[in-house]
Structures are given as structure tokens and as C-alpha cells.
Amino acid sequence: MAWSSIEEKLTSNLARIREGIDRALERSGRKGPVKILAVTKGVSPALIEKARELGISIFGENRVQEAREKVGKGTFAGAELHFIGHLQTNKASLAARIFSCVQSVDSTRVAFALSKASVRYGKVCRVMIEVNVGRDPAKFGVSPEDSLDLARYVLGLPGLVLTGLMTVAPEDPGVARRVFRGLASLRDRLLSEGIPRDALSELSMGMTSDYEIAVEEGSTMVRIGRGLFGERA
Ligand SMILES: *Cc1c(COP(=O)(O)O)cnc(C)c1O
Questions:
Q1: Which burial class, exposed, middle or buried, applies to 175 when counting CB atoms under 10 A from its CB (0-12, 13-18, 19+)?
Q2: Could you state, in order of their start, the residue ranges of all structural domains in the chain?
Q3: Residue of 62, 64, 129 with the most ligand 1 atoms within 8 Å of its CB, for mutation
């Protein structure tokens, strides 16, 4: 595809996603706002630059190494960069250095490693707890019943600021709705257990195939890859 038509496509895709979010907010009687996180795994720095020109300011990568290469080229300078993949403890130090937020904290080990690195760098790393709401053995995330203990653990660590919960739903739209609803009610349960509201303000849920459902169920941040940049190679 010619570069100019790739640019046009991104422009119209972004408009369509924004409309979809607005429609879902209207249907559910929610006010929003809902943030768009652009998932840029496999997306070239040039196209990311174009997305920034269109006003996108939050990006997500799921591999530390790929993100590091793009960061080295200055691709995300001045924007927010979130880690949304599975984090291995031995990559936590690098992750704490290059990401503004790690959405996929699902163990005390990873939380501790991120905290230690953040303190060493003298910076604050925002984190979310990834919850495996559907107890899908093929997915990462802490189980709903272990999430309270993990939230309390994270709140006690220096260098980390807990901002909310994240989940990845399965393909089936009916199941996805149950999972999103489950994350929202887990948030309410953690609030009632005394986790501060600030630490639970974000619900990162919804991707290209299910973001409207997620917004209807309370998402504050949708993570969109293919819906913006087209199918991955
Ligand atoms: C790839 C990815 C997305 C985006 O998926 P699309 O279907 O391309 O919108 C969202 N969240 C996570 C965790 C991902 O790995």
C-alpha cells in the first residue's frame, strides 16, 4: 500500500474507534472519558509518528526488546508508553526504565523486581494488576481471589504507584462481556476491602474485537492494535 493511503487509513480508523467508544458510552449511560492506548507491536516508527500527529499519546508494547529498540530511536519521546505483555522478572529492570506504566503485574516477584529497579533509577513506575478473570489456563494474570493480596503488596512497595486493573478477554463476545463485568465487580470488591480509589481508577480492558462491549462494562482504557494499524504481518 502507498504511504499516503496508509496514513489516510489510520486517520479514518481512529475516527471510527472514537465513534465506537462514544456510541458505547451513550448506550450504557456512562460519561467517560475512555482513553485509547494504541498497541504498536510490529508497527513501524514512521506509522507511530503519524499516530502521534493525530493526537494519540498513549502507546502499548508487549515485548520489552522491541520497545527498547523503538525507544532508542526516540519513537515514543514525550508520550506515555505502557507495557502490556507478560513480564519476566529478569526484564523488570529494563521495563522499569523504559515504560511509564506496566499493566501486566501478576505476581509479587515481578512487583518486587519492578519496585527495586524503580527505586534504583529514582523514578516512579505506574502499575496495574493483570487479572485472569476467566481463569483461562492459556492466559496470564493473577486469579481474582489472589488480587486483593497482590494489590495490598503493591501498595506497600516503594517506587510503584498502583493505578488500576487490566484484563484480556477471550474471543467469544458473550464470554468477553462476562469477563469485563467480572473485572468491574472485582474493582468494587477491592474498594470495599479498603484499597484506595486512586489505586483502582483505571480498568484497562477491550481490544479491537471487543472494545465496545468493554466500554459498556466500564472500561477506562481500550487497547487497540489492528483496529488502528491494520492486520499484523
Ligand atoms: C495485541 C494486544 C492488544 C491489541 O489487540 P488488537 O486485537 O490488535 O486490538 C491488546 N492487548 C494486549 C495485551 C495485546 O497483546
A1: middle
A2: 3-228
A3: 62
Nearest alpha-carbon partner for 227 in 9, 23, 49, 66: 9
Of 119, 66, 70, 114, give the one whose Cα is nearest residue 93.
114
Handedness of CA 198, 165, 181, 29 (dihedral sign): positive
- For domain 3-228, give its CATH number from 3.30.565.10, 3.20.20.10, 1.10.510.10, 3.30.70.1290: 3.20.20.10
Q: How far apart are CA 52 and CA 48, in angstroms?
A: 6
Q: Has this prediction a pTM greater than 0.85? A: yes
Q: Which atom of ligand 1 is nearest to the CA of 226?
A: 8
| Residue ranges with strand state E in the chain | 35-39, 58-61, 80-83, 101-105, 125-130, 160-166, 202-204, 221-224
Q: Is the CB of residue 21 less than 8 Å from the CB of residue 211?
A: yes
> For the segment 176-217, what is each residue's pLDDT rounded down to a tens digit?
999 999 999 999 999 999 999 999 999 999 999 999 999 999
Give the distance (Å) from ligand 1 centre to CA of residue 225: 6
